[in-house]
Design a protein that fits this description.
Elements: H1 6-14, E1 42-46, E2 61-65, H2 66-71, H3 80-87, H4 96-109, H5 124-132, H6 146-164, H7 168-177
Antiparallel strand pairs: 1-2
Length: 192
């Protein structure tokens, strides 16, 4: 029996569930993760795992990026996946992992990023672009993880403070590196 296609899965759920239950519009559901809403290669994720008797049929499959698939519940409860997806919904496309990084920052430092920093000389994007050069992506991940995003934000705050205090080295570095943030130079990276 051939594997259920992504379009079969989307077609099934678009006729069963309102799209308010997922992070994407049904028209984008074949190319965007139903949890984080990032455009990515999608895994066919079993609601009831095959190892627990789950079938390879549209009613038992959702579409998740690899990163979200790793975090999805693996339980013999058909409601668990939908409760998890709905509770984790992204508000805007391509924002989920950055928001998770901000939440991680708040847990680690007990405050919101830039709440103690005033930006006058540079824009946040210039500072973040500079700070992102101090981080790297874990092998195989494809994007910065939430704890790395949190520390990039912390580094950006430190750079902003140096600039506001008149540190000429920091000012020179930001001016040299400034410009529009390119794909891959953002907090969310390229792929989940």
């Amino acid at each position: 029996m051939p594997k259920t296609t992504l379009l079969d899965i989307v077609w099934h759920w678009s006729h069963v569930k309102d799209e308010c239950h997922v992070s994407v519009d049904w028209t984008d559901a074949h190319e965007r993760c139903w949890r984080c809403a990032y455009k990515a290669a999608l895994d066919r994720c079993h609601i009831i795992p095959e190892s627990l008797g789950g079938e390879d049929i549209p009613e038992n499959l959702v579409l998740l990026c690899k990163r979200c698939h790793r975090e999805a519940p693996n339980v013999n409860d058909p409601e668990a996946m939908w409760i998890w997806i709905q509770s984790q919904r992204a508000v805007f496309y391509d924002s989920f992992w950055t928001i998770r990084g901000i939440e991680e920052f708040e847990r680690m430092f007990g405050r919101q990023p830039f709440s103690e920093t005033t930006l006058v000389k540079v824009t946040p994007s210039e500072i973040i672009q500079r700070a992102i050069k101090t981080a790297t992506i874990h092998f195989g991940e494809g994007r910065l993880n939430p704890s790395t995003i949190a520390f990039v934000l912390r580094t950006a705050e430190e750079l902003a403070t140096e600039l506001e205090l008149g540190d000429s080295d920091a000012d020179h570095d930001v001016q040299r590196d400034s410009g529009p943030i390119t794909e891959g130079g953002t907090l969310h990276g390229d792929e989940p």
